């Protein structure tokens, strides 16, 4: 009986850290120097949308508007 109780207590103590929340720290600097419509070196050209010219803000905003309108159920 004592062994069983001791074993259950040991299991409970080993599982206790799983119930705690770890501290979350921001490792990277918040924000970016690049604008949203500019192209990064890591960008995959396969994901480039048709009608969007890299570095052009107006074409980027038009592409976002077109993409949002395609998701609008009222315009279908």
Describe the structure.
The protein has 76 residues and is mostly helical. Helices cover 37% and strands 0% of the residues. It has 2 helices and no strands. It has helices at 2-15, 57-70. The radius of gyration is 26 Å and the shape is elongated. The termini are far apart. The mean pLDDT is 78.
Topology:
Blueprint: H1 2-15, H2 57-70
The number of helical elements comes to 2
Which series of helices and strands comes N to C?
Answer: HH
User: Shape from CA axes?
Assistant: elongated
Distance between the ends: 70 Å
Helix content: 25-40%
Spans of at least 5 consecutive residues with low confidence = none
Structural class: mainly alpha
As a whole number of angstroms, the C-alpha radius of gyration is 26 Å
Tell me the β content.
under 5%
SS elements, strand count = 0
User: Would you tell me the overall average pLDDT?
Assistant: 78
Largest sheet: none
């Amino acid at each position: 009986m004592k062994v069983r109780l001791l074993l259950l207590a040991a299991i409970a103590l080993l599982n206790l850290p799983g119930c705690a929340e770890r501290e979350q720290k921001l490792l990277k600097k918040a924000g970016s120097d690049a604008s949203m419509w500019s192209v990064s070196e890591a960008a995959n050209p396969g994901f480039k949308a048709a009608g969007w010219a890299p570095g052009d803000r107006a074409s980027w905003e038009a592409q976002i508007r077109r993409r949002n309108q395609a998701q609008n159920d009222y315009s279908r």
